[in-house]
Design goal:
Layout (H helix, E strand, L loop, with lengths): L5 H13 L70 E6 L4 E6 L4 E7 L4 E6 L6 E5 L8 E6 L4 E2 L3 E2 L3 E6 L6 E5 L4 E5 L6 E6 L6 E6 L5 E6 L4 E6 L4 E7 L9 H19 L16 E6 L5 E6 L4 E6 L4 E7 L4 E6 L5 E6 L14 E6 L4 E7 L6 E6 L5 E6 L4 E6 L5 E5 L8 E3 L15
């Protein structure tokens, strides 16, 4: 059943008016359901003259075409030659079923079910866009693996044994696969084809390391620490952690940071004592949140971090590496996806603060305007649901998200929030839509640039 609303139609009108004449100071047409409280963007964030010097990237990384919009090459329809011949499909990893449901978006039907490894978490496009990797982390076990899918046939190849691949990213130069070994609190850098281990970066202060995004020049990455209520900054060139900060909606209140550090120290001690563990939600009354997905602003100066306990998005200034704002969104804030024009950020709120939530929760999608850092609209799942992770279609018209606790997938109209539900396997997680526009992939469910 497809459901719309007057509020959603208002947002559609606002987006249509935006177009190429969109102004940074424009106000959203629809009143936000839950207004944000973020710090306003400084004037310096405005577009710079065309004569501004080019971004100096790390060797081997494709050049930055537009220093004011790192998503410039992922606009609707800008497909790379590498994806020619790829089937138009949505690949949905079902954690509890140990399968991947394959959806044909043209018919809205599941057309195949692929058997993969134990606990498939995410389907990740390779840096060269030639392979889709299923990250099977075998939670609580030691037989994790990565299963390749050929996007031109939709069929799997032999799985490769890998320690705890909860998530998977790629170095911006394409030289390494970065396996996020969450339970071991480390990043394993591997050969991108064979997955042979080359070296590791320990992250002892980042309990529950899981999601990431990269600086505009490729020199740094920010990885969230789900069970430490924090985010770590990684020096990709010198291969080391250069800092970790705790996040909170009350970040600017006196004494909060000290309390966060005290709670984190206790929690870190517990995590280290458990050894191989994926942790759990913080105790009731704790100030620590559970940071999840992270995405850079179009100009790369800010990073937005979803928090499923804080029910909103933290804002971190990249240069100073400090929190500067917080935007309340919805219950169980989880996944973050830029619109194809790079002007809005879709925020998936999965309707529960628990790692194992119940069905038909207060799931929703919040739309944030990048320029103003304000909520433009909130779209609730009709009848309840649990929007988790996914991505935007090639043409930008549809946002696809897994329904983590409801064994379903949502196709959401990005012009008005209307939703269609498709049943899949048990506990669907990090789905990917393929093909997507862009020159190369940085990982996760399709962080392309």
């Amino acid at each position: 059943m497809k459901v719309g609303s007057n509020r959603m139609a208002a947002l559609a009108a606002a987006m249509a008016l935006a177009g190429s004449a969109w102004q940074a100071g424009a106000q959203p047409a629809s009143a936000p359901v839950k207004p944000g409280s973020a710090v306003a963007r400084p004037a310096s964030a405005a577009a710079k003259p065309a004569s501004a010097p080019a971004i100096v990237t790390i060797p081997g990384m494709p050049p930055v075409v537009d220093r004011n919009n790192l998503y410039s090459e992922t606009v609707a329809g800008r497909l790379a030659p590498a994806v020619v011949g790829a089937l138009e499909r949505v690949y949905v990893p079902n954690r509890s079923s140990r399968t991947v449901s394959v959806i044909d978006p043209a018919t809205m039907k599941v057309v195949d079910t692929l058997k993969v490894g134990i606990d498939p978490q995410h389907v990740v496009p390779s840096w060269d866009l030639q392979t889709l990797w299923v990250a099977n982390n075998a939670e609580g076990r030691k037989d994790g693996s990565l299963t390749p899918i050929d996007p031109k046939t939709g069929k799997t190849g032999p799985s490769i044994p890998v320690d705890d691949p909860y998530n998977l990213y790629w170095s911006p130069d394409g030289k390494y696969a970065i396996v996020v070994a969450e339970a071991y609190m480390r990043l394993d850098f591997r050969d991108p084809k064979t997955m042979k281990l080359e070296f590791s970066i320990p992250t002892p202060e980042c309990a529950g390391i899981n999601h990431a995004d990269f600086s505009i020049d490729g020199r740094f990455a920010l990885f969230t620490c789900e069970f430490g209520g924090a985010v770590s900054k990684i020096d990709m060139v010198n291969r080391k952690v250069i800092g970790t900060i705790r996040l909170s909606p009350k970040f600017d209140m006196p004494g909060v940071q000290e309390k966060l550090e005290q709670e984190a120290a206790k929690r870190d001690k517990q995590m280290h004592a458990m050894g191989h563990s994926h942790g759990g939600a913080p105790a009731r009354g704790s100030l620590l949140g559970m940071p999840q997905d992270v995405r850079a602003s179009p100009d790369g100066k800010r990073f937005y971090i979803a928090d499923m306990v804080a029910d909103g998005v933290h804002i971190v200034d990249f240069e100073s590496f400090r929190q500067v704002g917080f935007i309340p969104t919805g219950v169980g804030t989880h996944g973050l996806y830029p619109s194809r024009d790079g002007k809005f950020l879709y925020v998936a709120n999965r309707g529960s603060n628990k790692i194992r939530g119940g069905k038909s929760g207060k799931g929703s999608v919040t739309v944030i305007e990048f320029a103003t850092e304000k909520v433009a609209a909130t779209w609730f799942v009709p009848g309840g649901g649990s929007p988790d992770m996914g991505n935007v279609s090639n043409d930008g018209k549809w946002l696809w998200l897994s329904g983590r606790y409801d064994d379903e997938v949502y196709r959401i109209d990005t012009s008005n929030g209307a939703m269609v539900k498709i049943k899949v396997g048990r506990e669907p997680h990090g789905l990917t839509v393929w093909p997507q526009p862009g020159r190369y992939s940085l990982g996760h469910t399709g962080n392309l640039r």
